[in-house]
Amino acid sequence: PGPAPSVPAVSPGTATSAGAPGGLDRTLPFERLHEFDGGLIVQIDKLIASGATYQDVGLHAALAGGRLVVDPFSMQAPQGPVSGSLTADSATRAVSLVLHAPSIPVGSLAAFFPGWAAAMPGVRGTLQVEADLRGSGDTPHALLGTLGGTLGLSSVDGSIPNALLSRWVQQLGGGGGGDGRAGGKSGNALSGLARGLSSGLARIESGGDTALRCFASAAHIDAGLATLDPIAFDTSRLSATGHGTLRLDDDTLDLHLMSSVLLGGTGASTPVHLSGTPGTITVAMDPGLPGGRFGIVIGGAAPADPCPAALAAARFGQ
Questions:
Q1: Which residue(s) pair with 89 in the sheet?
Q2: Other Cβ atoms closer than 10 A to 285
Q3: CB count, 10 Å around CB of 116?
Q4: Ranges 19-33, 72-86, 241-255: which has the least confidence
Q5: Helix H or strand E encompassing 111
Q6: Which of 60, 79, 59, 56 is nearest to 129 (CA)?
Q7: Long-range contacts made by residues 220-223, C-beta under 8 angstroms, separation at least 24?
Q8: What pTM did the predictor assign?
Q9: CB 150 within 8 A of CB 312
Q10: pLDDT band at 83, cuts 50/70/90?
Q11: Any bridge partners for residue 149, and if so which?
């Protein structure tokens, strides 16, 4: 059988790297850790910054011999409690971070993942972040390339612009050109149905937002490669579950998902393969049928609710 048809994703534009001038290749200021030794204990009942109120702010920091330890830090932010610890060692260029943050605005991730933020304009909601990470390097790029640990991201009750959701579904439809073995009319019918569902959604949902029931991903990271398992995404129109990898130092994505589209009581499910970087993602049908065939399943039982198990995994027991 021939290769599965694929369709390049619509590029939202190129995003620059995050951070100070120099972006991911700027030199991290480890040498400044040698400027002085000392300790700091902070306890603030109420702190107002940029119009936001933070309560019960606590921090214990110690700096000696070029090694900084912040353990613990905690506060009650407007979106919820935040706590964790941080270490940085100038001798080894090593950094470690433990973070528990149940409610961080999705938009704040643009500072750390600018490419992916640009690929999801208008998505609203909050993320629960559970991180236990460590790495080493003179630049953020080098640090990402050595990163290890775990990272859980989850969200409930958010929203996605219908225009963005329509584009995603259209890309799925454009990727469905055949079943790899049957070919001919069968392949054309599958592709046509997928495109029909996506174009119908585009007409009906031309404005407004769709509720995001959940998003969840648990990542186990080794040497800068994040293994994402599970991945779950669920709305009333489009849902997806699966697994994959993300190369943190260059944003290279490789996902294998079972996607389901629902429109007017008619549902279609197909395994898809997403690959590339934020501005160049390609969507292709995955060989999910017996014999390595490609295809779309029409109708049938509604897929099981993907949210509970995926959310539990992404929260790592929190």
A1: 67, 94
A2: 31
A3: 17
A4: 19-33
A5: none
A6: 79
A7: 220/150, 221/133, 221/147, 221/148, 221/149, 221/150, 221/151, 221/248, 222/148, 223/145, 223/146, 223/147, 223/148
A8: 0.81
A9: no
A10: very high
A11: 133, 221
